[in-house]
Amino acid sequence: MTMFNIRGMHRILASSIGVTCAAALAVPLAPATAIASASPTRTPHTTQTQSQTPTTETTPEGHTESLPLKPLTSTRATATPTAPEQGLRAQDVRRFSLVGVIWDDPRTELHGTVQVRTRSTETGTWSDWQDVATHNADHAPDPDASERVSGRVHGATAPLWVGESDGVEVRVRAEQPETTDTPTLPTGLRLELVDPGEEPARTAPAARTAPVRRADTPQDAAPASVATTLSAETAEASAVNTELAPLGALEIPALSDEETRRELLTLGQAELLADLTEEQQAKPYIGPRPGIVTRRGWGANESWRERKFVYTSKVKAAFVHHTASGNGYTCSQAPSVIRGIYRYHVMSMGWRDIGYNFVVDKCGTIYEGRAGGVAKPVLGAHTLGFNSNSMGIALLGSYGSKKPSKASVNAVAGLTAWKLGLFGANPRGKTYLKSGGGNLYAKGRKVRLNVISGHRDGFATECPGLQMYRKLGTTRKAAAELQGR
């Protein structure tokens, strides 16, 4: 493996080409937004009726068009809010790339099928009918979490990436229950058409405040303390994005060398210096830190999410997921897909941020998910009942029948070897987590789980897809070897 000398990196960054490359993908650091308890500023989320004339206008920050579904039959008996067949006829809409269906009550499940077909802006042709995964309630905040009981949360299908489109048709059909009851659908069904927007222009951040660290029960705990505000100079230096090679391939000298410390700070690596110091003081079995594209690197608009960060006490386990958003994306489109999912989670589903802690695309690129710092125990919304003391890693795509790429499986192994190692967890081991409530384990029950588990181990779901689930044994073995076990 090629090793990069720190001084060599300094010379590269001194050139305009080096700075340009460095700004493309970021070494992990916490987002440069200050903590606040105020609600996030919402960007456009428009409601359109079928009689309105849509516009093809797109905006750099993206938008969400929300269309209420209607009964597809005309009889008075079926024209109810819970009609068993609802949808929209083919129509022109604003440009979008990702689609999902939401409803009023997040506690209500949609038992049935959701299908969409879309018209490509590139070819002008309509797609075949595509299935949208309906079981998405298991990717959620824990039942008692403040994020769950905020009053803004909706039930939702998984999002589906369809590529840039300007026409849509949808049909939702309830399945016949085992009883003699009439099949029904949840109330308030709406079609969400998401334009993920463009990657925002990069600007140097102002001085920022480190996040408030919270207790093991994040939603109820009061702030313990606020760390020192970084100076404007240090904050700007820390924002220099240095991804010339995966961080695991960089040769990091001993941090007792004061000259090395100054070198890292000059390179804009204040966050890296702090994290590396923490890692060296942690448990001995830590895999090499992989390259991670930060939120800034994939173009996260930080005004969409809530500005506060919430932490759990540690990371004892990793749950592996798939986004169930389809495999029809190119790796160059992955940042757009992630921005679409981010917007869907926040604007449509009502969460504080994207639910996953990390996302991995089919080329093996790792992306920072929920904000708060990649080396920190950020509380996610990925495994209903087991979000505390765990992290969620989602493969971008659907892996029920399709096998995940070797690169993506290797990326999950590398990420878990490093992140679990920071907290002394053995990827081949077992651990106990307390259930927050779900359809497999009652609230309060202590459950013995693999340190690297599939989503279905904590909740009755198909996630992370059968094909990815079969790879977890290989993942555990590879991660343990990377830790030197």
Brief synopsis:
The chain has 485 residues and is of the alpha+beta class.
Give the N-terminus to C-terminus distance in angstroms.
20 Å
Helix coverage percent:
10-25%
The coarse silhouette is globular
Give the structural class: alpha+beta
Description:
Residues 304-465 form the N-acetylmuramoyl-L-alanine amidase domain. The protein has 485 residues and is of the alpha+beta class. Helices cover 19% and strands 20% of the residues. It has 10 helices and 16 strands. Strands 1, 2, 3, 4, 5, 6, 7, 8 and 9 form a 9-stranded mixed β-sheet that branches. The chain has a 5-stranded mixed β-sheet with strand order 12-11-13-10-16. Helix 1 packs across helix 2 and helix 8 (406-422) crosses helix 10.
Q: Which helices and strands, and how do they pair?
A:
Layout: H1 6-14, H2 16-22, E1 45-47, E2 63-68, E3 70-71, E4 85-103, E5 112-120, E6 130-132, E7 155-156, E8 160-174, E9 190-195, H3 232-238, H4 258-266, H5 270-280, H6 295-298, E10 317-322, H7 334-348, E11 358-360, E12 366-368, E13 390-395, H8 406-422, E14 430-434, E15 446-450, E16 452-454, H9 466-469, H10 472-482
Parallel strand pairs: 1-2, 10-13, 10-16, 11-13
Antiparallel strand pairs: 2-9, 3-4, 4-7, 4-8, 4-9, 5-6, 5-8, 11-12, 14-15
Helix pairs in contact: 1-2, 8-10
InterPro entries: Amidase/PGRP_sf (IPR036505), Amidase_domain (IPR002502), PGRP (IPR015510), PGRP_domain_met/bac (IPR006619)
Biased composition (Low complexity): 36-61, 71-84, 202-212
Signal peptide: 1-36
